[in-house]
Amino acid sequence: MTRRALSPSLVVAAVLADAQGEHRLAFYLLFAAIPALAISAIGAFGEYVEGSSPIFASFSAVVLFLVVVGTALRAPALPDHSVPTLALSVLVLALVLVAAQGLLELVRGRLERQRPRRVARQVD
């Protein structure tokens, strides 16, 4: 559970830091999110290999890619205390995908709880 909650928390914190004008802090939060997102993407790929839906693995991989690209675009602008527009756009897109992934996981969890369980019958 912590594995899945850490990376979205760091992305949201980076968006909030950007909104407050703390672009250097947002850069470091995104930089810290990269390993967490990579672990999450590997876990989602493992679940896909075991028979889960490919949508979660795809979302995780795309979010990881977007955060890496967004972080790389920010790095040269750190001394200027500014953020390139493309880096902000990439971060917003990553945030939208993280939110969509969370929503899909919530729906999947509700559907799994509502699915009737099969009870093995004992033969006497």
What's the structural blueprint in terms of helices and strands?
Elements (H helix, E strand, L loop, with lengths): L1 H18 L3 H27 L4 H21 L10 H30 L10
Helix pairs in contact: 1-2, 1-4, 2-3, 3-4
Helical fraction? over 70%
What average pLDDT do the residues reach?
Answer: 84
Name the quaternary structure.
Answer: single chain
How many β-strand stretches? 0
Number of helical regions: 4
Structurally, how many domains make up the residues?
1
Give the topology string: H per helix, E per strand: HHHH
Which segments are poorly predicted (pLDDT under 50) over 5 or more consecutive residues? none
Distance between the termini: 42 Å
What best-fitting shape do the alpha-carbon axes yield?
elongated
Report on the biggest sheet. none
Structural class, from secondary structure content? mainly alpha
Rg from Cα: 18 Å
